[in-house]
Design a protein that fits this description.
The complex is a heterodimer of chains A (157) and B (156). Chain A has 5 helices and 5 strands; from the N terminus they run H-E-H-H-H-H-E-E-E-E. Chain A has 157 residues and is of the alpha+beta class. Chain B contains 3 helices and 5 strands, in the order βαααββββ. In chain B, a hairpin with a 5-residue loop joins strand 4 and strand 5. The two termini of chain B are 24 Å apart. The chains are: A alpha+beta (157), B alpha+beta (156). Chains A and B meet through helix 2 and strand 2 of A and helix 1, helix 3 and strand 2 of B. Strand 2 of chain A pairs antiparallel with strand 2 of chain B, so a sheet runs across the interface.
Chain lengths: 157, 156
């Protein structure tokens, strides 16, 4: 390891570590408040009567709804806490995300989320020595189908 | 809702109907509540300064959600959003509020995109797009990409 590397042996041990599963229900009101916060008037997310007449039959969640509001953030937060305990830098930013949407997520669905630290790299950036941690999450619905997957990048410096 | 876009209608280089957004401090509070992201980076001046970003910044996930709306608005009821990704490269700073409802004059953000590839695979008509959020200075603070499946006019 290079002198003064941010990624200590203790941090390196966390690669591959999983957190969860966390089970949560997709609530109708939470979908509506989320759509309102985006400023997205799509009736599929806002109007249960409209949604009832569509192929979904219930309010549809906007893409990415599964990021924070259904507690997917909790296992991710736990992973970040474990990073902090292992000595990761305390200043952090959200670096970005990749989503793969496989099944629709609708009001009333129950999603089970598990997350895993997939990778850790270090680079010199304008923030100084910077650590990039990739966290993968998988969300399985009540039918046992994978609804979506995500890969998030956390930046710590 | 906009009229349905079909696979035959798009070519490499075709633009996606842009979407405008104005980030305000009020919107960030609403987003924090709706998304459950209560990081003080997005509402506490001193904390944000301590984090080295100068002032509270727009949540990356909110900009990602705007890009989600850009795509779902464009692909219509019969289109399917299969993948969406973006990177939070540049900081965006919300407009402050002038009244309870109205923000001060200032920056307007644009969500934009264009088609980069179209192909058939596994019986689906797929289209790849480059997408981004552009700030008032024309800088792409949030570049990303999307993969969609579109219906065909022939129905095949």
């Amino acid at each position: 390891m290079a002198e003064g590397s941010l990624i200590t042996d203790e941090l390196r041990k966390l690669i591959g570590v999983s957190s969860g599963p966390i089970v949560s229900k997709v609530e109708e009101g939470a979908i509506q408040r989320y759509a309102q916060a985006i400023g997205d008037p799509n009736p599929l997310y806002n109007d249960p009567d409209f949604a009832k007449k569509t192929k979904y039959g219930r309010l549809l969640a906007p893409p990415g709804f599964t990021g924070w509001p259904i507690k997917a953030g909790r296992p991710t937060e736990r992973l970040l806490e474990s990073l902090a305990k292992a000595g990761a830098p305390t200043r952090g930013l959200d670096g970005g995300v990749e989503f793969e949407f496989i099944q629709p997520v609708c009001a009333g669905d129950v999603l089970t989320a598990t997350t895993k630290i997939a990778n850790m790299i270090e680079r010199e950036t304008r923030l100084g020595k910077t650590m990039f941690t990739t966290v993968e999450a998988t969300f399985v619905n009540q039918k046992g189908d994978v609804a979506l997957k995500s890969r998030s990048t956390f930046i710590q410096f | 809702m906009a009229k349905q876009v079909y696979y035959e209608d798009v070519e490499v280089g075709s633009g996606i109907t842009p979407l405008t957004k104005i980030a305000t401090t009020r919107m960030l509070v609403q987003w924090a509540g709706a998304s459950g992201d209560f990081n003080p980076l997005h509402y506490d001046d001193d904390f944000a300064k301590g984090m080295g970003v100068g002032a509270p910044i727009v949540h990356g996930a909110l900009k990602r959600a705007w890009l989600g709306q850009l795509m779902t608005d464009w692909i219509g009821e019969q289109g399917k959003l299969k993948k969406l990704s973006c990177q939070y490269r540049g900081m965006d700073y919300p407009r402050k509020m002038k009244t309870r409802e109205e923000p001060h004059d200032g920056e307007t953000w644009w969500c934009k995109g264009k088609v980069t590839k179209k192909y058939e695979e596994g019986g689906e008509h797929l289209v790849e797009c480059e997408i981004w959020v552009e700030n008032g200075k024309g800088e792409k603070t949030t570049p990303g990409s999307a993969l969609i499946a579109l219906p065909t006019r022939s129905g095949k």
